Amino acid sequence: MDEYRTLQEVSQGLYKEKGSKFIAIAIPVDSVDEVRLQLEQLRKRYHDARHHCYAYRLGEEPYEVRYNDDREPSGTAGKPIFGQIQSFELTNVLIVIIRYFGGVKLGTGGLIQAYRNAARDAIENGKIVTKTWKALLEIRYDYLQMNDVMRVIKDEGLRIIHQESPGQSCILLEIRKGNLETVIRKFSSLEKLECTVI
């Protein structure tokens, strides 16, 4: 399968319990760098909150996963947030829950429930979409092969990301991962042509 489920755009959720407020923000992300940037921005924006707990899942199996309790008791925040990402079968998503403490301790069970419910609310308030994994393929070929190369691109409905042709021509293509083998086979049948998956 080269399809995955993620969120179309940022969505929010909210859970309140005994004066504490749990603001959940679910964000579609594509990389760890993007996760770091989002976390940094949210910590600045909600600088007065006591906790900024989060979980994310990136890529396809084996997924890149991380969750963080941010000084809440171990296992009471990050894991329940991540549990909701798993439950909705999402990837390429980050959920951050900002907690404003209301003065009353909720206990382990209360915290787990609060973080789980806030995360679920954020996901349910968003729009889940199905996307396809893409691969980048670099094609290097002789200029005289241009027509053959373009025929394959047209037949397979490939998207050209970048094209240059000083002496030896080079094209960068975006391809649905499930079609990658077929496309490589077609290009490989052309002589003096190099295919590289990036």
CATH superfamily of the largest domain: Impact, N-terminal domain
The tally of strands reads: 11
In the predicted model, the low-confidence regions spanning at least 5 consecutive residues are none
Q: How many domains is the backbone divided into? A: 2
CATH fold-level assignment of the largest domain:
Ribosomal Protein S5, domain 2
Spatial order of strands in the largest sheet: 2-3-6-4-5
Radius of gyration using CA atoms only: 23 Å
- The separation of the N and C termini measures 20 Å
Can you give the mean pLDDT?
A: 93
Helix content: 25-40%
Query: What is the helix tally?
Result: 5
Q: Using the alpha-carbon principal axes, give the shape.
A: elongated
The biggest beta sheet reads: 5 strands, antiparallel
Give the second-level CATH assignment, the architecture of the largest domain.
2-Layer Sandwich
**Beta fraction of the residues?**
35-45%
- Coarse structural class: alpha+beta
Please identify the top-level CATH class of the largest domain: Alpha Beta
Q: What's the SSE pattern?
A: EEEHEEHEHEEHEEHE
Notes on the protein architecture:
- This protein is α+β, with helices and mostly antiparallel strands and 198 residues long.
- It folds into 2 domains: 129 residues, Impact, N-terminal domain (Ribosomal Protein S5, domain 2), CATH 3.30.230.30; 65 residues, ACT domain (Alpha-Beta Plaits), CATH 3.30.70.
- Helices cover 31% and strands 38% of the residues.
- The strands form 3 sheets. A 5-stranded antiparallel β-sheet has the order 2-3-6-4-5, with helices on both faces.
- The chain is elongated.
- It starts with a strand and ends with a strand.
- The model has no long low-confidence stretch (mean pLDDT 93).
